[in-house]
Design a protein that fits this description.
This protein is α/β, with parallel strands linked by helices. The protein contains 10 helices and 8 strands. It has a single domain, classed as Alpha-Beta Barrel (TIM Barrel). The longest helix has 19 residues. Strand 7, helix 9 and strand 8 form a beta-alpha-beta unit. The structure holds 2-phosphoglycolic acid. The site of 2-phosphoglycolic acid (PGA) has 13 residues, from strand 8.
Length: 252
C-alpha cells in the first residue's frame, strides 16, 4: 500500500473537561507546534461550550477544532442537544460520533451513529466514527466480528475518505492505561481496511483509521507504527499540551 497511505490525523477528545482556565493548554499547544514540521493533521475536540474560544486562542495555527457528538436533526425541540450545523457554525471541521461512552451512557446504536455521521456529512463536517470491542468480546474471540458489524451498521451512504475517519477504540483500553499489542492493533486495523472495501470500494486505501485507547507520549510511536494505523484519537493525554505534543511528535 505504499504511496496510498493517507495523511495521518492526531485528534484530541477532551470529553467533559475544560472551562476558561483550561484555555491556556490549547494556547500553549499552538505556540509549541509553531515551528514543528508535521506529517499529520491535528484536531482538538473541546466541549462545545469552548469551541469558539479554543479556536480563537489557536488562531494562526494549523490545528483544527471538532465536536464530540452531534444530533441527527438540523434544529428543533431537542433540549440540550447540539446539531452538526451548530458545530460547523462554531468553527468546527469535524465531529466524533459513536464514541463508546455515547454508545454506553446514551444507548446509541449503530443506527444512531450512522444517522449522526450522515448529519455530520450534511453539515460539511468530517465524521470520526468510533468502533471497538469490549473486554468480554475480545476474550471470547469476537473482536473482528464486532468491528465488522459496527462498521457495516455505522457508515451512511455517501461515506468517503474525505468525509469520514474511522477510530478503532477497544472499550477496555479507554482510560485504563491498558493497550493492545502492536500486533493486535495491526490485526484489527488491517481487518477494518479490508471491510471498508465493502463500503467505499477501492477508496478504502485512502481512509484514515485511527487507534484510540490509552495513547500516551511513551507508547504513541509504537502504536502508530502498526500496519494500517493512520493516527490517534487521544482522550486523557490530550488535555495537557505537553503530553499531546509528545503524541503528535510521533509524526514529526
Ligand atoms: P483515553 O481515551 O486516551 O483517555 O484512553 C481515548 C478516547 O476515549 O477517545
Amino acid at each position: 500500500m505504499a504511496g496510498t497511505q493517507p495523511r495521518p490525523l492526531v485528534a484530541g477528545n477532551w470529553k467533559m473537561n475544560g472551562t476558561t482556565a483550561h484555555l491556556r493548554e490549547p494556547r500553549l499547544l499552538a505556540a509549541m507546534l509553531r515551528d514543528v514540521k508535521l506529517r499529520c493533521e491535528v484536531l482538538v475536540c473541546p466541549p462545545a461550550t469552548l469551541a469558539r474560544r479554543v479556536k480563537a486562542v489557536m488562531k494562526g495555527s494549523r490545528i483544527r477544532i471538532g465536536g464530540q457528538d452531534c444530533h441527527t436533526a438540523v434544529s428543533g425541540a431537542h433540549t440540550g442537544d447540539i446539531s452538526a450545523e451548530m458545530l460547523k457554525d462554531a468553527g468546527c471541521t469535524a465531529a466524533i460520533v459513536g464514541h463508546s461512552e455515547r454508545r454506553t451512557n446514551h444507548g446509541e446504536t449503530d443506527a444512531t451513529v450512522r444517522a449522526k455521521a450522515a448529519a455530520a456529512h450534511r453539515a460539511g463536517l468530517t465524521a470520526i466514527v468510533c468502533i471497538g470491542e469490549t473486554l468480554e468480546e475480545r476474550k471470547s474471540g469476537k473482536t473482528l466480528a464486532v468491528v465488522s458489524k459496527q462498521l457495516e451498521g455505522s457508515l451512511p451512504e455517501g461515506t468517503t475518505p474525505a468525509n469520514t475517519v474511522i477510530a478503532y477504540e477497544p472499550v477496555w483500553a479507554i482510560g485504563t492505561g491498558l493497550t493492545p499489542t502492536t500486533a493486535e492493533v495491526a490485526e484489527v486495523h488491517t481487518h477494518i481496511r479490508k471491510e471498508l472495501g465493502k463500503a467505499v470500494g477501492e477508496n478504502a486505501a485512502a481512509m484514515r483509521i485511527l487507534y484510540g485507547g490509552s495513547v500516551k507520549p511513551s507508547n504513541a510511536q509504537e502504536l502508530m507504527s502498526a500496519d494500517n494505523v493512520n493516527g490517534a484519537l487521544v482522550g486523557g493525554a490530550s488535555l495537557k499540551a505537553a503530553d499531546f505534543i509528545g503524541i503528535i511528535k510521533a509524526y514529526a
